[in-house]
Design brief:
The protein contains nine helices and 20 strands. The protein is α/β, with parallel strands linked by helices. It folds into two domains: 13-156 and 333-356, 3-Layer(aba) Sandwich (Rossmann fold); 160-320 and 362-390, Dihydrodipicolinate Reductase, domain 2 (2-Layer Sandwich). Strands 9, 10, 11, 14, 15, 16, 17, 18, 19 and 20 form a ten-stranded mixed β-sheet that branches. Strands 5-4-3-6-7-8 form a six-stranded parallel β-sheet, with helices on both faces. A two-stranded antiparallel ribbon has the order 1-2.
Length: 395
């Protein structure tokens, strides 16, 4: 079958998955393959099992270099065939959609380029995108050449509650946005690792609400002192160069908006401050992360409360009951379903998905701009001209 042969769909067929109305078809079937790496990134946050819940999808194969993990994945996914080499799987199975599932970043570039060159229609990938902007550039160029649709699993971007947030901002409920304040989980990974692994979500949210950042000003500390080349280390999970137990960064967006991201190692209970606060001239929003994050609005230009109280924002709107069934903000299953369906929609309509590799690269660029600003000792303009990792050039 030619890779550009789109499966026919019947318009308007509604699928109710996890209580959500998702438009698609039960007739069209996409051949889906999964790439995992047991012990070295595994299968991400459910990027393998989500396809069992998509009626348009048929899992035809899984690839995993680990023999035990491969057998377990094949059983878990009811995959009829399993491969030790994903290149062989791509050649023999000719999937139309592939989940590049490993969390570790050292394999993302090679896996994505192999999928694009194999003629797939779509790729769903775990975040963060890559170790460097050079790798991200190569991945996007390969997918663009082959006209592959791509999605990256920044789940909060896909939440229906974020649609309500965008509507509130557009309607002027917050006035002009003055500040965006984000923090990581600040657990044992606080600082550089938190910035890379979880900061990706916060950077993506900042861009979703305020557009592209124009510059970054940041400092990176280790033990209270500015990081030097001596403190640079190889990060966990194939992250690449890493440094710092404290990060403080400021970003410039279209005036009057500025953004902030900070993370300090062991600065509190995990997830206690992980999220984004949006501060405007009329009020503010507090936004968590996940498929149905906790979102609250404070109708107070002083941002203090007083007589005003924090009001919940649900998928239905301000102060309205949540109409969707939920297991909480960390319901990965629901978010993955929305992302998978969006990828199929993009394939069938030749449209851009809500969160593509371009969005993943932009979040990565904001992350690496922290190190570039620290290296320069001043403002780092965005986009970054040097596409290699800034810590490699730190003195």
């Amino acid at each position: 079958m030619n890779r550009r042969h789109f499966l026919q769909t019947s318009a308007g067929t509604a699928l109710w998955l996890s209580g959500l109305s998702i438009h698609g078809t039960t007739a069209a079937r996409y051949r889906v393959a999964v790439i995992g790496r047991t012990g070295r990134g595994n299968y991400g946050h459910g990027l393998d099992i989500v396809w069992k819940q998509i009626p348009q999808a048929e899992i035809v194969a899984v690839a995993d270099e680990n023999e035990t993990g491969r057998a377990e994945a094949a059983k878990r996914l009811n995959a009829p065939r399993a491969y030790a080499d994903y290149h062989e799987m791509l050649e023999k199975e000719k999937p139309q959609i592939v989940s590049v599932a490993p969390r570790w970043l050292d394999c993302h570039r090679d896996m994505v380029i192999a999928c694009a060159e194999a003629g797939v229609l779509g790729i769903m990938m775990e975040k963060p995108m890559a170790r460097t902007l050079a790798e991200a550039d190569e991945m996007i160029a390969a997918c663009d050449r082959a006209r592959v649709k791509t999605v990256i699993t920044h789940q909060t971007r896909y939440s229906p509650r974020l649609e309500r947030v965008k509507e509130m901002i557009a309607a002027g409920k917050l006035g002009d946005i003055l500040e965006l304040r984000g923090r990581g989980k600040e657990d044992s990974r606080g600082g550089g690792e938190d910035l890379m692994v979880l900061g990706s979500h916060i950077m993506d949210l900042m861009r979703l609400l305020a557009g592209d950042a124009k510059w970054c000003m940041a400092r990176v500390l280790d033990g209270g002192k500015p990081v030097t080349r001596a403190e640079v280390r190889d990060g966990n999970e194939g992250i690449g160069p890493l440094a710092g137990d404290r990060i403080d960064a400021m970003y410039g967006f279209a005036p009057p908006t500025v953004g902030f991201f900070s993370s300090q190692r062991n600065a509190g209970k995990p997830t206690s401050r992980f999220g984004l606060r949006v501060l405007g001239t009329k009020g503010c929003l507090d936004i968590g992360t996940g498929s149905l994050p906790n979102v609250f609005f404070l109708d107070d230009p002083q941002w203090r409360g007083g007589n005003a109280r924090w009001q919940p924002v649900t998928s239905a709107g301000l102060n309205l009951p949540e109409p969707l069934p939920t297991k909480g903000p960390s319901d990965l299953n629901a978010g993955n379903i929305w992302i998978a369906q969006d990828l199929i929609r993009a394939i069938e309509t030749d449209a851009q998905p809500k969160g593509s590799f371009a969005d993943g690269r932009a979040a990565l660029e904001m992350i690496l701009a922290v190190y570039e600003s620290h290296r320069l000792g001043g403002l780092a303009p965005l986009p970054l001209k040097d596409r290699d990792h800034p810590l490699k050039k730190l003195s």
